[in-house]
Amino acid sequence: MSGIQGTQVVGRVALVLRVIARAGGAGLSLTGIVRASGLTRPTVHRLLKALAADGLLDFDEAAGRWHLGPELYVMGAVAAGRFAVEHLARPALRRLAEATGESAFLSIRRGDETVCLAREEGSFPVRSFVLYEGKRFPLGVASAGIAILAFLPGGEAEPIISDDAARTAEYGPTHAAGPLRERLAETRELGYSVNPGLVVEGSYGLGAAVFDPSGRPAWALSLTGIEPRFRPGRREELGEQLLAEAHRLSTAIASPRP
Q1: Contact 142, 195 (CB under 8 A)
Q2: For residue range 148-203, what is the model confidence (pLDDT) as tens digits?
Q3: For residues 95 and 211, what is the distance between their CA atoms, to the nearest angstrom?
Q4: 43 and 117 together in one domain
Q5: Which has the closest alpha carbon to 73: 17, 144, 119?
Q6: What is the CATH number of the domain that holds 195?
Q7: In what order do the strands lie in the sheet with 193-196?
Q8: For site-directed labelling of 172, which of 87, 126, 214, 254 has its Cα 20 to 30 A away?
Q9: Which residues on neighbouring strands pair with residue 120, listed in sequence order?
Q10: What's the N-to-C CA distance of the chain in angstroms?
Q11: CA 31, CA 52: separation in Å to the nearest integer?
């Protein structure tokens, strides 16, 4: 019984950390964490105090908001040594941003979600702020998640596609299983995904999967911007540039390194 309780506590700790991470630099109030996690207020309060005592969370008293703490930064820096893809992707992000003027991003798959790891701002003065470091989306929602989901094996992808209740509740009927299957088919045909303002109206995105050495889609490069910058003609040019960089990055990841 104690093992079950211990596992439950670990799950709740992970949930609280993810909820706060999703808020990005803005942080979250106690009420916001309770609402987003679905846990009771006393439970959340106890977890926050315990995590803060170990430096895993930090409380901004002036704003009344909780943020990820310094110990998580240290852990992340250590873990980054095992996941050097961000370092490899930086030149690709810079090239994309410089060549297109749009904002370029690297996202990683984590379970049934994508998490944005890095970005490079383009020179065009009007930008979309849908995506930023630490932002999570369910697979199949943003352009990165569509690109990854499109190239997963069918047996792995279909349960994610079919389980659309939470996805449609948060992002609308355009993210139901039927429309999503159509976007995935289009992605496999083009080689890259197109998100025509489905998360935020007028904010477009293109995504291209990046593959690990075993050939599985584990990351994605993406470009985001406003709709007039992603119209037919230029959209295809952007897609080809994105595919070229994704292929180059997949090759670099597969190449032996010291």
Answers
A1: yes
A2: 999 999 899 999 999 999 999 999 999 999 999 999 999 999 999 999 988 888 88
A3: 19
A4: no
A5: 17
A6: 3.30.450.40
A7: 136-138, 113-120, 103-110, 217-226, 203-211, 193-196
A8: 126
A9: 104
A10: 46
A11: 17
Chain position carrying tokens 């948060």: 170
pLDDT by residue (tens digit) across 82-104?
556 888 899 999 999 999 999 99
- pTM for this predicted structure: 0.71
Q: Does 57 share its domain with 99? A: no
3-class secondary structure for 18-85?
HHHHHCHHHCECHHHHHHHHCCCHHHHHHHHHHHHHCCCEEEECCCCEEEECHHHHHHHHHHHCCCCH
Q: Are residues 94 and 69 in the same domain?
A: no
226 Cβ contact list (under 8 Å, min separation 6):
126, 127, 128, 202, 203, 204
- Give the model's pLDDT for residue 9: 87
- On whether both 91 and 217 belong to a single domain, the answer is yes
The span from the CA of 201 to the CA of 1, in Å, is 49
- Domain containing 121: what range? 84-254
Residue type (1 letter), 192: Y
Structure token pair of residue 201: 């109206």
